[in-house]
What we know:
Blueprint: H1 2-57, H2 64-71
Amino acid sequence: MKAAEILLRYMDRLHDFFEILDSYLDMGMDFFSKLKVWFEKILNYMEQAINALADTIGIKKGDSRHSEEHLFV
């Protein structure tokens, strides 16, 4: 009987430990999903800035003539 009580006590502690670990993993996943959203926004803003710069300079996306000229400069 004593061994069963000891085993149950350790199993309860192990269960509590895994519940805490699970809560930390949930918080980490939430943090990284928010971080992913922020990185997507940053990349979107960078793409818009690059496209605006290319429009200002006069380079159009997919303009192969322009890219071939710069290969031999």
